[in-house]
Amino acid sequence: MRKNVRRSVLILSGSLLLLVASLSVSLIAASLVAQNTAHARELRRSGWDYGVLTVNKVYGSDTEKTTCVASVCYLKSSGAHCEKFETTVDGSLDRSAVSARTEALARVIGKLGDEGWEMLVGDGLGLGKEGEIKSLYFRRAKH
Q1: Residues of the chain whose pLDDT is less than 70?
Q2: How far is Cα 99 from Cα 80, in angstroms, rounded to an integer?
Q3: Can you give the pTM of this predicted structure?
């Protein structure tokens, strides 16, 4: 009889622990869902900042260096603020134009990513003449 009582107490204790663990997990999950929902509501309330990255020109000398000039225009209801970026690589324009453009885009896209911007889409198919990217659009939650 005593073994049966012990066994019943152990089963009851185990069941109680399982119930407490299940409730804890449920409460944690509900808390995370509530936080995510509150964060989504906050984003909807505050809105987005938008930016446009454009490769303006690639120029260079015949033998020495090739430079790519890109700009990011940050768009607000009060107007746009544009920032210019220049990247120079070794080599003539005819051999290094693609390299200069790629390096410039990599640096600016990396900078925007580090600042919390996410890429949305390029214009049209994202390509200009000869497969060149014309513009890329970004957004981030307003601070």
Answers
A1: 1-45, 62-63, 122-133
A2: 29
A3: 0.61
CB atoms within 10 A of CB 89: 19
CA–CA separation, 3 vs 8, rounded Å?
8
pLDDT at 125: 42
Extract the runs of DSSP E, i.e. beta strands, from 99-141: 118-122, 135-141
**Residue 140, CA atoms < 13 Å, CB-side half-sphere:** 11
Rounded to 5 degrees, what angle do the CA atoms 68, 71, 76 make?
Answer: 175
Residue ranges per domain, the chain?
A: 1-46, 48-141
* Total length of the chain: 143
Cα Rg of the chain (Å, integer): 28
* pLDDT at position 92: 86
CA distances from 28 to 15, 34, 37, 57, 110 (A): 20, 10, 14, 53, 35
Q: What's residue 132's pLDDT?
A: 62
The amino acid at 93: L
Measuring CA to CA, which residue among 102, 94, 104 is closest to residue 69? 104
